[in-house]
Amino acid sequence: METFNKIAVPVSALILFVVLWELIVWANGWPDYVMAAPSDLPAAYIRFWELFLVGGWQTLWRTVAGLGLAVVFGLLLGMIMGFSRIARDALYPLLVGFNAIPKATLVPVLALLFIGQHNFNTVLMAFLISFFPIAVSVGIGLSTLEPEYRDILRSLGASRFTIFRKIALPKTLPEFFGALKVSVTLAFIGTNLVEIVSPHGKGLGALFLSGQTNSNYPLMFAVLIALAVLGIVLYYGVVFLEKIFAGWAERQST
Amino acid sequence: MSNLIAIKGVRHAYSTDAGPLPVLDGLDLTVPEGEFCAVVGPSGCGKSTLTRLVAGLMKPDAGEVWLEGKRVTTPRKTVGMAFQNPVLLEWRSILDNVILPLEIVDPSMSRAKRVARAEELLAMVGLEGFEDKRPSELSGGMRQRASLCRAIVHRPSVLIMDEPFGALDNFTREDLWQTMRDLRAVENFTCVLITHDLRESVFLGDQVVVLSGRPARTQYILDVDLPHDRTIDVLYTQKAADMLHDLRNQIKIAQGRDVEVH
Description:
The structure holds 2 protein chains of 2 kinds. Chain A is an all-alpha fold. Chain A has helices at 2-28, 41-47, 49-83, 85-100, 106-113, 118-143, 147-154, 160-197, 203-213, 217-246. The radius of gyration of chain A is 22 Å and the shape is globular. The two termini of chain A are 18 Å apart. Chain B has a single domain (33-57, 75-211, 219-254), classed as Rossmann fold, CATH 3.40.50.300. In chain B, 34% of the residues lie in helices and 26% in strands. Chain B is built from 7 helices and 10 strands. Chain B has helices at 47-54, 94-105, 111-124, 140-152, 170-186, 198-204, 238-254; strands at residues 3-16, 19-32, 36-40, 62-67, 70-71, 79-83, 158-162, 190-194, 207-211, 218-223. In chain B, a hairpin with a 6-residue loop joins β9 (207-211) and β10. Chain B is globular and about 55 Å long. The A-B interface holds A 146, 148-149, 151-158, 162, 166-167, 170-171, 173, 246, 248-249, 251 and B 52, 55-57, 74-77, 79-81, 83, 85, 87, 89-91, 100-101, 103-105, 134, 136, 150, 154, 160.
């Protein structure tokens, strides 16, 4: 019954959402260039299925690559900030300032820096937009580690690396995954941003743009839905990893 | 070598924004091998600093700390520590929490041997059957029991405890005193216990050291002349009452207050 509910409830919500969407479009008599109805979408998917597959794959791998870079770099930066007060004081304002820059303004900057390197630019943007939450939460997680946790191993003469591996790192994992859930969405936005804004783009973003250029409105909506689905897949991928590596942090409901 | 721990004229100050804050000044302490030394004193008198010095986690500004005939300058594997907060690792089972020090001290020890050693201790403190539980599934007293097991699993020569029973209710605390007594009868370690509880210091200690107010020095040493296999009942004898009274007066002096006159 519980597993049934777990599947049945979200699926019914989804169906309800689609039905409402269809109803609103129908009741207002909107043409598809104002708002396409769900019933307009299958035709778009059938006609352009190959483009959807290729574009979806390009969007997916570049997002994951950017996120992977963000994880490595964010962890490193978080470790530096977590262990050194001086590094924390020095880097924090820089990071906050960088994070405050609207990333859309970086698209032309990157395009000029690395001309024609579309894949590289896209991955780079996904990375730039998504490392901040990881660095901050890992940094805070490490710097707020209670001294007793360190002392149980330090009093045995354990090295800093051993203490990090056995205590600090696992203890920070819940914070890390919390940040990763934010970062995965950000990386996805970063990828699509470059795909849509830069000319001769690839991926689902470029498909969206071509829908706009060709006034194929159902295609634009179909891309949006495909992006939503891809976003859900990525997000739950992170949730799945969290369950494996930090499942202990989940409170048993009693 | 009779004294396992020897602290000679230790002085230490922390640097604060308002200048140096001396916490220890002229602290002397000796604990013979196998003895249980309880340390009491007013709040904030530097008792925790003392544990960190003995564990080699910090160095005193002046004076010497000796352990097993060697000057303490860095942490060493022959020390076990337990704190008021049991600091169990939430992502490990109780068994794996207890095993943790063995992974550091003796990396070559086989998993089976580690498990056997941990299980032996867990059974001794009454945690048989809880090996696979997570720390969050245990009560405060049980967590502290597991924490004690972890502190002595690697057979340290010194066990240093910083108010390990301070956060427990009175009945649980008395249970743990008896657990501690039983562990001592089986395992060989010299013990330093920091506590606020005078009854605890008399029940567990072979000697009770009273520290003066900050900066702390050794103010008074009481030899607890009671048999090792004490029961809680011993605390209700005249002898224990006299000792407790004696200690209470010393604490008053340490706090800078006059001893009450009958």
